[in-house]
Specification:
The structure is a homodimer. In chain A, α4 (about 85-90) runs parallel beside α5 (about 105-115). Chain A has helices at about 15-25, 40-50, 70-80, 85-90, 105-115, 150-170, 190-205, 220-225, 235-260, 260-270, 270-280, 285, 310-325, 325-335, and strands at about 1-5, 35-40, 55-60, 100, 125-135, 135-140, 175-180, 210-215, 230, 290-295, 300. The first copy, chain A, is globular and about 60 Å long. In chain A, a hairpin with a 2-residue loop joins β5 (about 125-135) and β6 (about 135-140). Helices cover about 50% and strands about 15% of the residues of chain A. Chain A contains 14 helices and eleven strands. The interface between A and B is large, with 64 and 64 residues.
Chain lengths: ~350, ~350
Amino acid sequence: MKLALDAMGGDFAPATNVEGARLALERLANLEKIYLVGDEAALKRQCDACGLSGSHVEIIHAPEVVTMEESGLMAVRQKKRSSMSVAVDLVKEGACDAVLSAGNTGAAVAASTVKLRLLPGVRRAGIATQLPNEYGVCNVMDTGANPDARASHLVGYAVMAAVLVQYMYGKAEPKVGLMSNGTEECKGNDFSKETLKLFRQLEGDGKLPFHFLGNVEGHDLFEKELDVVVTDGFTGNVLLKTCEATAKTFSKWLKREIMKSYVRRAGALLMQGAFRSLKKTLSADQTGGSPLLGVNGVSIIAHGRANSTAIFNAIRIAEGMHENSVNPRIVEALADMGNIPAEYDLPR
Amino acid sequence: MKLALDAMGGDFAPATNVEGARLALERLANLEKIYLVGDEAALKRQCDACGLSGSHVEIIHAPEVVTMEESGLMAVRQKKRSSMSVAVDLVKEGACDAVLSAGNTGAAVAASTVKLRLLPGVRRAGIATQLPNEYGVCNVMDTGANPDARASHLVGYAVMAAVLVQYMYGKAEPKVGLMSNGTEECKGNDFSKETLKLFRQLEGDGKLPFHFLGNVEGHDLFEKELDVVVTDGFTGNVLLKTCEATAKTFSKWLKREIMKSYVRRAGALLMQGAFRSLKKTLSADQTGGSPLLGVNGVSIIAHGRANSTAIFNAIRIAEGMHENSVNPRIVEALADMGNIPAEYDLPR
C-alpha cells in the first residue's frame, strides 16, 4: 500500500506525523511507501532529525496549510495547494491508495468527498469511530462527517461499518444497533423512528447483511455485544465528545482527589499499573484514526491531538482497509442489497 | 410545602421511597407534610418498619402501579388509579404543591403534562438534569421529556432552566449554551442552526434574560463555566446516558484492573478516600431528581435506581422550587420576553 500523509495536519505537526510514518514503515509489512506532503524544508529537517530516509519515503511539497478554524469546504476550494488537498490529490490521481490527515476534520471530509467522490451505491459518506466495549470495540457511525442525515443514509452507514467489521476484523455476523433514547421499539425521535421502520422493513425482506439489534442506548455502547451503532453525524459527534469529556473529567477529578493526601498518593503509586493499563484501553491513540467510509479511496481521519502512536495506528488502519479490500466489499454489499424505497430518501 | 410521593415508583419501591420521606421530614424545615401514595398495606408495613408516623405523613391508597415497560401516555389513560396518577392528582386538586416519582419517566412526564397542564407562556415542558461541572453544576435540558423539539421550545427550555439557576441557586446571570457538534458559529445540524439563529435574534433584541454563550460541545459540559445547556430531548437523553455509561464503565474497568494484583489492591485501599469522594461528586443520588420544568406545579422525576438518599435529595429540590417560587418566576420571565417569531415554531 502507498500512503499520502498530510504531514502538516494536527496540533503537533509535522513532528508526530513524521515520527508516526517512521514507525509505520518499520513495522507494517504491506506498507510500500509513504508520501509526506507539506512544507519541504520543514519535512526534510524533521526526517533528518528522526533518521527517516530511503526510497520508501518521499516528500511532496505543498506550501499551504489548512488551519483548524477554517470552514471545510472553503478550505478545499481556496487552498488548492494545501498539504491536505495535495495529499488527497495523490489518491485521486492513483499515485496512492490511502490518505491520512490529523488536520481540520471538516476539511478532510470535504476534500475526500469532493475529490475522491463516493463509491458506487453510496449515498453519503460517514466517519466510523471505534469505542472500547466489553466485547471488543463498538464502531459508531457517523461521528461527524454530515450533521444531518436521512433514513437511507443510516442504512448505508450500517452496511459500510458492518463490512469493515466483517472483512477487517473477521467477525462473521456483525451486530448493528440504532442509537435511540431507549431500547424499546416505540422509543426515538421522528427521524430515528422512521429509520427503525426502514431497517425493520429491509430485515423482513432478508436484505440486511448483518444482525440488526434494533434500538440501543448509551449504556449499550459499552455493555452490549455490539459491533456497530449508527446515528446521524450530529448525535454521533455529541455522543463521542461527551464520552471523551466524561472519561477525561473522571481522570482529572480522581487525580485531584489523589493529590489531597500523602496516603492517597502512596496508594496511587501502588496502583500505577492499573491506571496505565486502563489509560491504554481508553486512549484514542490506540485506535489512531477513524475511516471516512463511502469515499472512493481509503481516507483516514486522525484526532487533532494525535501523537506518533496514534499516527502509526491510523496508518495501520489504512493498511488494513486496503489489504482487506474493504471498499470493493462495500460496493458489493450495497449492490446486493438493492434499492431503498424512495420515501426513506427524503430530506429531514 | 406539601408533597405527593409516588411511593410505588422505582426499582426499590416502596422501601427507599418511605425511608427517603422519613429523612426529608426529619431534615427539611419547610416540608409540612408528605402524602405517600400506593398500596396501603405495603406502605403501612414500611412506615412501621422505619418508624415513620405522625400527622406530617399520610398514606393515600392507590391499587395500581405503572411498570417501567409501559408506554407513558397509555399508562396515564388506562391506569387512573395508579400510584403515579393519584400522586399527580393531589397536585392537580391543590392538596399538594409538588409531586415526586422514581417510576416510569415517560409516564411521569405524561401524567404531569396531561393533568397539571403547562404554565402560561410555556410551549413545551422539558426535564432539566444536573451534571457536575468544574464550576458547580450544569443543567442539561431537555434530557428526554420530548424527543423532538422546535427552535422556540429550546428558547423556552433556556428561559426556564435559567430561572431555576437564578432563583434556586442564586446565580445572578446564568450562562446558557446550545449543544452542538462544535463551538464555531457555523457548526450544527439544520435544527440547531435554526435555533442558534433564533437565540442570536432574541439576543440582538435584548430579550434574553441570561448570558447566551452560543454553541457548546461535549467537553464544555464539564470544563466551561456553564449553568445551562439546551438541546432536544433525543440528543439530551443520548448525551446523559452516554455520560452515565462512560463514568460507570470507567469505574468498572478500573476496579477490574485493581483486582489483578495484591499490590494494586493495597494501593486501592490507601486510595479509598479518593474513590469515595469522587463517587459522591459523580453520583446521581446527590442530585436526587430532575425537575420537569414548564408544568403547572412542581414535578420532580427521580432515577429508577434511586436510593433513599436520592429520594431525600429529590424532595429537597421540590422544596427549593416551591420555596423560591420558581414556577411564578418562569411565567414572569416568559411574559417579559414576549412572542417568538412564528417561523421558529414550525415542526421539524
